[in-house]
Amino acid sequence: MPSPSYGDVDYETQGGGYVRGRRTDPRIAALVHAALGDARTVLNVGAGAGSYEPGDRHVLAVEPSAAMRAARPPHLPLAINAVAESLPFDDGSVDAAMAMVTVHQWSDPDRGLRELRRVSRGPVVVLTFDRDALDRIWLTDYVPQLVTADRPRFPAIERIEAALGGEATVTPVPVPADCADRFIEAYYSRPERFLDPAVRARQSVWGFVDPRAAEQGLARLRSDLDSGAWDQRYGALRRQPAFLGALRLITGPPPQVDSAPGGVRP
């Protein structure tokens, strides 16, 4: 059976905060669902509580965390207890596969992505963050350790493309100012929210930052908000409708069919 804590975050004990705070943003969902094309059967790997699963298609969900499986709303299909690196599906058995901000939690991202490619006869859609663009948000000026801690966790975009066959499309995803999915960039125009421990609890990277460094950076942020220094430097972001940061949508096209009888190229 899969380990209950397969990645670098223990979702058995920390998953509750994710369920409450990490919700589907409809504008990001529209991009994800468009990338799935006309797929009728969709495999969602690292499915968690079901964010971004399309409601108008047949979804098969895979999630190794018992706590996250239990947190799935009753209208969603039950999730299968399995891991990305060893999917219990035949080759080409689903129309499309998706992985939403989960690849960095896999023990072997290359193997997991190859598994998604194996079981999907159509597109493979991955929502992730570009490790080289994590420092675009102003928060890293206050807590630079956020980048230091997060960058090694995320596979490089080129690595994901290669695992999907090398011909993937990479699309930068604008984050709306009122984004419902409360990852760090969702608060680019709402700096006060980072002072709330409940908000930070929904963002796994804080668990990898030295608490003293985090406290010092947040104290500086609080001081700059009180004095108006933050608004003098970054205040235009409060009126900016979207932020183009590190969020990326990677779409691996369907595998090419070889001209030889029965041949399929990845």
UniProtKB/TrEMBL annotation:
Residues 43-120 form the Methyltransferase type domain. GO terms for molecular function: S-adenosylmethionine-dependent methyltransferase activity. Pfam families: Methyltransf_11 (PF08241). This is Ubiquinone biosynthesis protein. It comes from Frankia canadensis. InterPro entries: Methyltransf_11 (IPR013216), SAM-dependent_MTases_sf (IPR029063). Keywords: Ubiquinone. It comes from the Bacteria. The keyword Ribonucleoprotein does not apply.
